[in-house]
Inverse folding.
DNA sequence: TATAAAAGTATCGAGTCGAAACATAAAGAG
DNA sequence: CTCTTTATGTTTCGACTCGATACTTTTATA
């Protein structure tokens, strides 16, 4: 039954990601979870780089995430920025050394090596298939999608720039490439 | 760059697998790692159901794995079988209640739901692509493949039955569907 | 026969993780 | 405008993971 095959192979690929993350992180004394949090902060936009954002993404509790971010901050891999308008909020951004550390770990070497033998179109096809899988999985479970801003139903085009229909704020093009915790795909119907 | 897309999406899918494993396992008081070990023991053949086998598969140390298996045994999810010929070896097999517990967790519900909307051939195509990706990834890193016995270069056909060229033992058809720690794909050349 | 290697167990310490309690700030109700 | 509720984040505690190390027993090798 190919459904189980998909599950088993995905699980195995996850193991490899984790094993490699362990090796990579070991260099800088980081654990897989910490690398994942760092990776998320690198990808997400300014509405999503908070404790709550990481919490929803990693599926852990906010207490745990708070600890993880404290470690990353102590090692100088991320910086802390209290929100100017809402004083409950704290934003975290990868520092230069955080981004450098991340560049070693993403993409995983075993993935680079495996996809090296494939053509660009084949790789793109695989990426599209996986994204499609992820998307339908998230829709059916009514979970947060964390998609790129530019694929969001709230994203509005204003002249040559963009605008978020939720916050009303104006967005640059790079802004719309980042992932957002409020992201929703357009309605299928 | 689609290589990073593949990495990011895979990482996200891993998160979902883990989140769901946490929910599922929480019912029986199991942690994600323990479920993974149980799942491995369910899939592997009689040469691979040892502490060392699980160790190589999960990429942890044998001390850790020994602990994990002790927990699973104490909860009655696996049974312990000392090897008859080599008295250093201990085999572990999922019990009835272990298999029942596993049936709840595999395949993950979000995967079932997502692939439900696809045709059988599309699902099979995705499975094949992932298996292919896994295979080349493992080849390039010279790591253990843990493939199904029937795809192994040591597998020999004898009349209507099979035989392992490494151990010399005769194998049944179901035997050859299980995964093995000594597995090697046939040479590409 | 002596030595080395392999499989597994036991123990310790650092760190993850979830749960719960807590603090602070914003939003809402009357 | 005050009181209550809700949201974000931190701290603390206990259970557990995980790697490192030392150890035992058994098998393989020189």
């Amino acid at each position: 039954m190919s459904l189980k095959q998909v599950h088993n192979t995905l699980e195995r690929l996850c193991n490899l990601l984790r094993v490699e993350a362990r090796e990579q992180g070991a260099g800088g004394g980081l654990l897989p979870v910490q690398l994942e949090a760092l990776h998320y902060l690198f990808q997400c936009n300014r509405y999503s780089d908070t404790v709550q954002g990481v919490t929803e993404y990693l599926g852990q509790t906010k207490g745990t995430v708070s600890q993880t971010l404290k470690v990353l901050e102590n090692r100088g891999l991320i910086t802390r920025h209290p929100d100017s308008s809402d004083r409950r909020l704290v934003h975290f951004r990868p520092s230069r050394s955080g981004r450098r550390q991340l560049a070693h770990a993403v993409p995983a070497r075993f993935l680079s090596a495996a996809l090296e033998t494939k053509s660009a179109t084949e790789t793109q096809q695989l990426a599209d298939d996986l994204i499609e899988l992820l998307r339908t999985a998230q829709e059916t479970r009514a979970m947060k999608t964390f998609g790129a801003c530019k694929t969001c139903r709230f994203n509005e085009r204003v002249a040559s720039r963009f605008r978020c229909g939720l916050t009303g704020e104006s967005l640059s093009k790079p802004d719309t490439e980042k992932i957002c915790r409020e992201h929703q795909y357009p309605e299928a119907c």
In short: The longest strand of chain A covers residues 78-82.
